[in-house]
Amino acid sequence: AYSNSELRRIARRSFINFATGWFELPLSFLMTNENSRYVLELVNLEDFQKATHQGTGTVFLCLHLGNFELLGILSVLWKLPPRHGIGKRIQSAWLRRAWEKILQAFQFNVIYSHGAIPKICEALGKGDIVATMTDQRMHSGRGIFVDFMGKPARTSNLTATLASITGAVPYFGYATRPGFGRLRFVFHGTV
Fold this sequence. Notes:
By secondary structure, the chain is α/β, with parallel strands linked by helices. It has helices spanning 4-24, 33-39, 45-52, 70-77, 93-105, 117-125, 158-166, and strands at residues 40-43, 58-62, 83-87, 108-112, 129-133, 144-148, 151-155, 169-179, 182-190. It is built from 7 helices and 9 strands, in the order ααβαβαβαβαβββαββ. The strands form 2 sheets. Strands 1-9-8-2-5-3-4 form a 7-stranded mixed β-sheet. A two-stranded antiparallel sheet has the order 6-7. It starts with a helix and ends with a strand.
């Protein structure tokens, strides 16, 4: 179990990470294939590219670490198959429109979680990549319980479910931030 001071430290770092991501987001519009090599350190990209080109579709599980949104930009720069991200609809209409416009500029399609399964299965059936993030705030009756910082938390089992239903490759990755404006993205491997 974590002490209160450890939990506060982790929460503080999480909020700093989230805020930093929003400050870094405008930098993504300046991203090119050349300068992305400086900004982004990629680990095991070749393994991920091999997995995504098998034609079965890829369910990509990513944590809420680093800057998840850059996955869409990366996938365009490195010519990965069409990309989709599963997300919750942003309540603010103007913020949602702005966010969708940014993602569309990088050919990253949002599949909103409500009624998403048919769209996800269609995308995977075409061999596309569908990215999903773990979420510690699942609605009751959904997901499975896992230990999260010493407490039971309901989380999604969507990646495993989709892989078993569709035959898609389940892949895991995460991002860390070694400094402002720099990201290290680790393509960890199949799950």
